[in-house]
Description:
Number of helices: 12
Radius of gyration: 21 Å
Mean pLDDT: 95
Amino acid sequence: MKIGFIGIGNMGSAIMKGYLAAHNDEKDNIYAYDKDEVKREKLCRDLGINECSSLEKLMKQSDAIILAVKPQNFETVLTEARSYYQPHQVLVTIAAGISMGYIERMIQKQEGVKIVRVMPNTPALVNAGMSALCKNRFISDAEFEPIVELFRTIGRAEVVDETMMDNIIGISGSSPAYTYMLIEALIDAAAANGMGRDQAVIFAGQAVLGAAKMVLETGIDPAVLRENVCSPGGTTIEAVKALQNNGFHDNIVEAYQAAVKKSKVMTK
């Protein structure tokens, strides 16, 4: 499968690098186009992949096209890309708020447009991403599976219904930001109590990483894991009570709902 990347910003380049780390012998099958010529030339040279000087050249070479452009640039890119779209090609969008129906209407092909919609998140930059994928009715399972596997090279990937995509924004698309706020608060508190910030980063980051691994690898309900840490009369239960008294759970739910609401407003 020849894969073309339109846009090589943080997410586009992360997906590309993750795929190449798992499939190093596939460099000749990777194509990249970005309007930033300097960035494009450097990345293609560093990774040993094919540089395309125009969107037209990339479209003519690729079986799957990763649309890694910002939502505000999507209409411009699709308007140009539809002139070169071929019936066998799969369009893969990673832009928030861009529905498969919107892309179908923009491309306007009688034979149907093959589309995969993906919501990855920024930990893909360290191969620890969480991606949700869905496909439209014109794609077979055999065509869809290589795209799912592509996103599994940058972390975990799950297939969902498109109706869940706004929900995905809240639970994994935006939630790294909430988690960074928790880590930031732990670092600030540790520093206020005399720990050096560099060391506090390690302690806080590893603690959150370990807690997440416990959830994923043990299969134990997070509420049970929390209770297991909270010995009666101990330090942790005092910390948990303080969080509960200050509305920690409800604040997270409120933030989640705000992200979902904004996603619904943005969706085209």
